[in-house]
Design goal:
Number of helices: 11
Helix content: 40-55%
Shape: elongated
Number of strands: 4
Strand order of the largest sheet: 2-3-1-4
Number of domains: 2
Structural class: alpha+beta
Order of helices and strands: EHHEEHHEHHHHHHH
Largest sheet: 4 strands, antiparallel
Strand content: 15-25%
Distance between the termini: 37 Å
Oligomer: single chain
Length: 233
């Protein structure tokens, strides 16, 4: 059951040039759009309140869009209204700035517990599938290899240092992973061996006269990049 509630979005519409904004253009866009009417009927939303006023300079509209009713359904309605304010005919002439976005706030409050639960399940998966079978050192070794593939601002070790007050402890690393860090850790493709190692291995096989098609293919395949998810899970 979704509880009765109210949601609103509050913001400003600026003309990109110094021309006057005609309030009726925005008002009609929202109130007379047939799909908005369909959404209101379909989701049994109460009347939409569209309150607006012109700014001092005339090229700004302060707007306040408000709905009461079933919180899930009105969030959908207001989401669609936000989409209307992003249509090309509006965006090519106006900037839209949200001082308060009740739709985003609503979804954030509902999604945060689910994201936390999802992170816990990912952490459990890594503990059970990786650490239990391959040891803790696999985590630290893999992070080094993945970071080699990432630019400086996206390196996993930097995230861990930032989230653990400047210290990097592999035993608590997973607890400091964000959802984005889990994504990088599980799905970034990396190689187990450097080009130098591969070349040295080929030279050694050649010197010992044991380099054939099969061994060459096997050595070269070790440079293939795969994610940790592809390798172990």
């Amino acid at each position: 059951m979704w509880r009765e509630s109210n949601l609103y979005i509050d913001g400003l519409i600026f003309a990109k040039e110094e021309q006057i904004i005609y309030v009726d253009f925005i008002k009609n866009l929202i109130e007379n759009n047939s799909i908005v009417e369909e959404i209101k009927i379909k989701y049994h939303s109460k009347d939409l309140r569209f309150v607006y006023s012109k700014g001092i300079k005339g090229n700004v509209i302060n707007f306040y869009i408000y709905l009461e009713g079933d919180s899930f359904n009105i969030a959908k309605t207001l989401s669609y209204i936000k989409e209307l304010l992003n249509v090309p005919d509006v965006r090519k002439e106006f900037y839209v700035i949200y001082a308060f976005d009740g739709v985003s706030d609503y979804y954030s409050r509902r999604l945060f517990p689910r994201i936390t639960e999802f992170e816990s399940k990912l952490r459990s998966l890594i503990y059970m599938s990786l650490i239990n079978n391959h040891g803790l050192s696999l985590i630290s070794e893999t992070i080094v290899k993945i970071d080699y593939e990432l630019d400086e601002s996206n390196k996993i070790k930097n995230v861990l240092m930032r989230n653990s007050n400047g210290s990097f402890n592999i035993d608590t690393a997973l607890q400091n992973f964000t959802l984005s860090t889990y994504e990088k850790f599980l799905f970034t493709k990396y190689s187990d061996r450097s080009y130098e190692d591969i070349v040295n291995d080929i030279e050694e096989h050649y010197t010992n006269n044991i380099l054939d098609d099969y061994s060459l293919h096997y050595i070269l395949m070790q440079k293939e990049k795969k994610s940790i998810c592809h390798r172990y899970i």
